[in-house]
Amino acid sequence: MKILKIIGIVIAAIIAIAVIIGLVTPKEYDVKRDIVVSSPPEVVFKTVSHYSEFPEWSPWAKLDTTMTTTLEGEDGTVGAKYSWKGNSKVGEGSMTITKIEPGKALEHDLKFIEPFESHATTYMTTEPVEGGTKVTWGMKGESNFMSRIFMTFMGGMDGAIGKDYEKGLENLKTICERSPAAPAYEVMEVDFAEKNCLAIRQVVAFKDFASFFGEHYEKMYAAISGAKATPGTPIGVYYEYDEAGMKADIAAAIPYQGAKVLAKGYSDLNLPARKGYTINYMGDYAKMKPAYEAMDAKLKELGKENPDMVIEEYITDPMNEKDTAKWNTKIYFFVN
Length: 336
Description:
The protein is an alpha+beta fold. The chain is built from 7 helices and 16 strands.
């Protein structure tokens, strides 16, 4: 009986200690690590802000080579969601981009399903420093009562994830420092010439841009050619861009000269001559973000937050040129 009494006292003591730990351990946590990468900020930020590049530097990617992942939404924008499901070492969960400050910071909503449910906010910041770019990776949130007890025996949240973050940042440094520098985009003043177009304007989801343009350009070309008019280079006119809603108010348009063109479902669009700015972009349409960051920098210089209108002129026909590196797009933007 005496041994049972001793065991009972020990168990009671352990429970009491656990309760005290749960009560005195802070609910809130903020674990972060940083590193200096010898690469330009634009190269580093592009890498950390795109889920498609995350497996290259993730400290957990090699723990399960058969892990399944999915990417929803437009990568590198607010609303993009990365989900994974793997073995017991990586578990199951998702992270969604909730905030982006281009070239500087972003936040993710992190949710774990397995091995246990939890929720937190992760963040990354980049800032230019002597020798390259300082990158900070962190996670913040609140722990429930049982989590605080469990994490205490693992060295707290810092002990649980700190080493992983250090490994991830080392991987990131290696990836970025062997990547070529992002091209610099020159913003030039331009006298935009008047264009009379056949067009269709709709609010279109980001994911449907390609099908929207592809379908209507083909029909408009046929209508213009059928009217014995001369079609010009196809353009996309962007009136409003809703990143939160993952959609945009846009027009697919083809300038033309000659006889007036009438086509069911399409209307005339006149783009008047005006002064603006232009950027010459070479590459895949899905990788135009650095060019638009150059536009944002120019707008900031002008004391503007948003352009009045953006026009993309698609110089290269993707149907005839399969090498995306050779696709040429002229970006025009206008401010009052």
